[in-house]
Amino acid sequence: MKQRLMLFSVFVLTASFQSSGWRDTSMATYDANYIEISSVKYKEEQFNVIYMKREGNRVKAKYFAAADFNGNNVYKRYQKWVSGKNVILVSSGTYMDYDGVPVGLTIDNGVVVNKTLANNFDGLVIVNANGGITVTNLKDGDLRLKGDDVDSTKKYDLRKSAWDMQAFIKWAVSHEATVFQSHLLVYNNKLDIAFMNASNAIAPRRFLAIGKDEKGKIVHAIIQSSEYATLYNGSKKSLEFLNQFKDMEVSFMINLDTGDQDVFKLYEKDGSYNRMIKGEKDLSVAVNLLTYYFQ
Predict the structure, then answer these.
(1) Contact at 8 Å (CB) between 183 and 123?
(2) Contact between residue 156 and residue 150 where contact means Cβ atoms under 8 Å apart
């Protein structure tokens, strides 16, 4: 009888930890030398920043663009993938239509989901199989590809050349890349969103910025502001903050959804949830997910 009571007590205690956000720290840890989490007040506005160093390829990105062809939605796919991973954060991604189909050219780990290039999103985001992220400005038409099977000096113009488009899709499939389109807010450390063309809607903002730190090392940053702002003003303020306060030269910055799928979950180095920097929606409602993990 005592043994049964003891087992029951352990079960209750474990269930209580799980519901309160506790995780097995042996399964969810990372080296804090690579990740800096901060909340900073800059010019009377609060910025939450997760600053991640890519040096050594220890910090990796993974993007779930859509449900798979077996009917598993993004949340189920993430649940299957995450086992044994040291997750740093998970966030809602970019745009979907009302039917849940990703807007614009979308390839998910080498599987073509949508082959139609959207004209109103200039940012083409490529998440490589090795966990890196690159972005090209489709307006420039100068995408370059890497690999033994391609000419790395060739420039691909996906909007003007059907041949270039097909060649790029073939490359992405063979290299198991993930590709999606988004608003390109900053490119080469300059605002790439025009004030006159931007929406006047105000909302909390969350962005993904990638660039170089003061030592010239590649860093990825998720920047989140609770202040309501238009996409233009939020982008302008965030770029200034990253340039001035973080001394970061931003190669590009794209928008992350804080609307109907405002999902964001951040983990501390001991595996516990950060309860101050978070999204408003449960992970299960996400129709696409960007996650960073440590390996």
Answers:
(1) yes
(2) no
Q: What is the DSSP letter of 143?
A: B
At 98-144, the pLDDT tens digits run: 777 889 999 999 999 999 999 989 999 999 989 999 999 999 999 99
pLDDT, tens digit, 9 for 90 and up, residues 210-269 = 999 999 999 999 999 888 999 999 999 999 999 998 999 999 999 998 877 899 999 999
The residue among 115, 233, 128, 111 whose CA lies nearest residue 173 is 111
* Dihedral angle over CA of 129, 208, 125, 290, nearest 10: 50
**Cα atoms in the 13 Å half-sphere on the side-chain side of 114:** 20
Nearest one of 239, 186, 242 to 214, comparing CA atoms: 242
Amino acid type, 93: G
The model carries a pTM of 0.87
| Contacts of 142 by beta carbon, 8 Å cutoff, 6+ apart | 136, 155, 156, 157
User: How far apart (Å, rounded) are the C-alpha atoms in residues 159 and 18?
Assistant: 48
